[in-house]
Design goal:
The protein contains 16 helices and 23 strands. It has 636 residues and is of the alpha+beta class. Strands 8, 12, 13, 17, 18, 19, 20, 21 and 22 form a 9-stranded mixed beta sheet that branches. Strands 5-2-1-15 form a 4-stranded mixed beta sheet, covered by helices on one side. Strands 4-16-23 form a 3-stranded parallel beta sheet, covered by helices on one side. Helix 1 crosses helix 15. The longest helix has 15 residues. This is Rab proteins geranylgeranyltransferase component A.
């Protein structure tokens, strides 16, 4: 079984299936974001760290895949077969006073996987992904598609929603520009040196690479065949979990503080959208946009400014909200002399909270956080990492070598385990929540943009009892997550039924299936779906460690992704676990200044040998992006 050594921060990653109660170095198991942050914090404090991961890809449920990589992932879960471990070498390593706790080789955190292909599938078996290392993509994909269901009735267009927002001025400090932002079209650039799913430098080939259809005849306008998606599959970076980074959130602060930010690049979310009465409209996010909005009356603008000013400092005025703490935020808004239009807008596009479950305090906190994050790096509060969410775990732990060994005993004092590795016996009393996810590849944006490089977030409120708010994030090709001429759309909500049952009603409101008949109709305004994936993902973020059976005290549990928009929960988990194990150490302190590091002759030898074994990383940054080491003031 291969052992992967990783990162210049002494973090190692190996593959394994067992761990023991009595050991002596610290290592986390799995490779998700909380575990990677924890590993980096341990290494930064001088600990030796070993990552143990049985999966063939980085990131666990935080991973990002190329299109062919995602199809392989889909096939793995649709087959749903148990993995048999033939070797018993590990059993010989158990001492008399020890008891082995078996880790599950079967990941049961994903279920109800359904795939629909609407694009033309008249591809040949020899079509392969540009730059791919294997030629079996056609066999991987052809068996995995469900029949495309006919669309149900579509909503009619009603009156326009008057939308607005307000940017509260924020003081600019020098630390606020220490994150790389993609300020121009990243599609004009080369590729990033190292990212998930074994992407190679072959992806740096020209955008002019033609598909099979391109070489034989000129396709009709907007026609995209499935073979083209396959061939351009390495231009996709498809996240299993859909999240954004708040510009003043815990993860951004940690990236800057620890100087790990130099391993990632980001784009600002350019649009916040609202959906009401069957229409999608853009929310103005700056102060100037609010006052230039022609759909709002002067009175509405004043109402909104007054309310948002209150939200920014609501703690100083308890008399204005204390009496409403036991009601929902939606009911509280009705008492604030806001028009129904403004109430809807604050609830769903600014606070982004549930109409039925979020309390007044929850709503005020969410609104304040939104306003607090405005203006730090751009015109909205949110950032998105280039190449997808799967880049973030690798920022903290980057692999560099492989050692082929099996049956080796590794001693450690502490074990950090992602809960998907536990067996059914360990989890027999645990009640999990579920997340409903959908990933769509579409041919155009949900709202016709001024330019074709817009990144948007849209919250669709619930309309039926026992349903949940659906979050929609639409990514353009300049995020390095999809090929030119397409958009990658992520839908997320808390599960009530299967992912398809939960999310299909929203999909039908915003999109239509891609068919040859509809290609001829250029008057269609809705985006057409080329390909769709639905699945449910386990949410263990609120499960207590006490719910798991018979865990020794030196085993610490990490959850997978939660349903929230940001990454604060992952950072809080990592910091809490770190403080439990190392209460007297700083969590991810800033690295020392290289000029202050003095190396003696003994320490230079291993370093030189280590460097010679490491391949040189491609440190080129895409054109139009700011360097992490040379921050620039972002354009707004």
């Amino acid at each position: 079984m291969p052992f992967l050594l990783s990162t210049p921060r002494k973090v190692r990653r190996v593959k394994s299936t067992q761990f023991f109660r009595e050991s002596c170095i610290c290592y986390p198991s799995s490779f998700g974001l909380p575990e990677s942050i924890f590993a980096a914090a341990c290494s930064r404090s001088g600990q030796r760290v070993l990552h143990v991961d049985s999966r063939s890809y980085y990131g666990g449920n935080w991973a990002s895949f190329s299109f062919s990589g995602l199809l392989s992932w889909i096939k793995e879960y649709q087959e749903n077969s148990d993995i048999v471990i033939e070797s018993s070498t590990w059993q010989e390593q158990i001492l008399e006073n020890e008891e082995a706790i078996a880790l599950s080789k079967k990941n049961k955190t994903i279920k109800n996987v359904e795939v629909f292909c609407y694009a033309s599938q008249n591809f040949q078996e020899d079509i392969e992904e540009t730059g791919a290392l294997q030629k079996n993509h056609a066999s991987v994909t052809s068996a995995n598609f469900s029949e495309a269901a006919d669309p149900n009735c579509l909503p009619t267009e009603d009156e326009s929603l008057s939308t607005l927002s307000c940017e509260v001025p924020a003081e600019q400090t020098s630390s606020e520009t220490e994150i790389a932002l993609e300020v121009n079209d990243a599609e004009e650039t080369g590729e990033k040196g190292s990212y998930s799913d074994d992407k190679t430098s072959e992806e740096e080939t020209s955008e002019n690479v033609s598909t099979a259809e391109d070489t034989t005849e000129q396709p009709k306008k907007n026609r995209i065949a499935y073979s083209q998606i396959i061939k351009e599959g390495r231009r996709f970076n498809i996240d299993l979990v859909s999240k954004l980074l708040y510009s003043r959130g815990l993860l951004i602060d940690l990236l800057i503080k620890s100087n790990v930010s130099r391993y990632a690049e980001f784009k600002n979310i350019t649009r916040i959208l609202a959906f009401r009465e069957g229409r999608v409209e853009q929310v103005p996010c700056s102060r100037a946009d609010v006052f230039n909005n022609k759909q709002l009356t002067v009175i509405e603008k004043r109402m909104l400014m007054k309310f948002l000013t209150f939200c920014m400092e609501y703690e100083k005025h308890p008399d204005e909200y204390k009496a409403y703490e036991k009601i929902t935020f939606s009911e509280f808004l009705k008492t604030q002399k806001l028009t129904p239009n403004l109430q809807y807008f604050v609830l769903h596009s600014i606070a982004m909270t549930s109409e039925t479950t979020s309390s007044t305090i929850d709503g005020l906190k969410a609104t304040k956080n939104f306003l607090h994050c405005l203006g730090r790096y751009g015109n909205t509060p949110f950032l998105f990492p280039l190449y997808g969410q799967g880049e973030l775990p690798q920022c903290f732990c980057r692999c560099k070598a492989i050692i082929d060994q099996f049956g080796q005993r590794i001693n450690s004092k502490h074990f950090l385990v992602e809960d998907s590795y536990f067996s059914e016996n360990t989890c027999s009393h645990v009640q999990y929540r579920q997340i409903s996810r959908a990933v769509l590849i579409t041919d155009r944006s949900v709202l016709k943009p001024d330019s074709d490089q817009q990144i948007s977030i849209l919250t669709v409120p619930l309309e039926e009892p026992k349903t949940f708010v659906v979050r929609v994030i639409e990514l353009c090709s300049s995020t390095m997550t999809c090929m030119k001429g397409t958009y990658l759309v992520h839908l997320t909500c808390t599960s009530f039924k299967t992912a398809k049952e939960d999310l299909e009603p929203v999909v039908q409101k915003l999109f239509i299936p891609y068919t040859e008949m509809e290609i001829e109709n250029e008057d269609i305004e809705k985006p057409r779906i080329l390909w769709a994936l639905y699945f449910n993902m386990r949410d263990s973020s609120e499960v207590s460690r006490d719910c798991y059976n018979d865990l020794p005290p030196n085993i610490y549990v990490c959850s997978g992704p939660d349903c929230g928009l940001g990454n604060d929960n992952a950072v809080k988990q990592a910091e809490k676990l770190f403080q439990q194990i190392f209460p007297n150490e700083d969590f991810c302190p800033a690295p020392p200044n290289p000029e202050d590091i003095v190396l003696d002759e003994d320490s230079l030898q291993p370093e030189a040998a280590e460097s010679s074994a490491m391949p040189e990383a491609n440190t080129e940054t895409p054109k139009g992006s700011t360097s992490l080491g040379n921050p620039e003031k972002p354009s707004e």
